[in-house]
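TA notes, week 10

Several of you asked for a full example with nothing omitted. So below is the full record: structure tokens for the whole chain, then the designed sequence directly under it. When grading your own attempts, check the secondary structure regions first.
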């Protein structure tokens, strides 16, 4: 019994293949879509199930996903990251924040506007409740416009969510700050 529980909790049965697209990685196999979706990965739109680049990078790193291009050639982690960096200048920060939060057991979903990078669900709450936290990611030493921070905080407060500022330090570690108010003097 413990062997089955271990493999189920580690997600080893998820091993699947996806196809690289301009905006992520498409998964076609129905059983993989169901397994990924139930664990808080990917989005379905117009009968196409797509993993965001940071999700695909995380699953490739965990050896749970193999990505291929349109010519059936395998796309490795570095190539996938390079493709992501062409689409988003914060690719590396987003991936590291995503990886860190997932490794802590949170379900992490894409954010929605006002500079919000991610929505974070309490452990065990995904599919049952709304996200408790909204995350804004940045790098140490890279300024954030006060208007961007103010807009993100207002959006969080209007939705009764907590804003978390995830800062990647120079060593690539993620430090989290709760933002509850902005005071100007």
């Amino acid at each position: 019994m413990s062997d089955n529980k271990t493999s189920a909790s580690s997600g080893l049965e998820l091993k699947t293949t996806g196809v690289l697209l301009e905006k992520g990685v498409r998964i076609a196999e129905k059983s993989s879509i169901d397994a990924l979706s139930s664990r808080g990965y990917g989005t379905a739109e117009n009968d196409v199930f797509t993993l965001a680049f940071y999700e695909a990078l995380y699953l490739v790193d965990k050896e749970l996903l193999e990505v291929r291009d349109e010519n059936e050639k395998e796309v490795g982690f570095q190539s996938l990251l390079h493709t992501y960096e062409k689409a988003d200048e914060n690719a590396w920060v987003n991936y590291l924040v995503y990886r860190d939060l997932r490794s802590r057991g949170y379900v992490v979903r894409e954010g929605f506007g006002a500079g919000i990078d991610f929505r974070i669900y309490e452990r065990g709450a995904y599919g049952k409740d709304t996200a408790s936290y909204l995350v804004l990611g940045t790098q140490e030493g890279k300024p954030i416009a006060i208007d961007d921070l103010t807009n993100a905080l207002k959006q969080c407060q209007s939705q009764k969510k907590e804003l978390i500022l995830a800062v990647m330090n120079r060593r690539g570690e993620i430090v989290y700050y709760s933002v509850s108010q902005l005071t100007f003097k």
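The chain has two domains: 2-87, 91-179. Use that as a sanity check on your answer.
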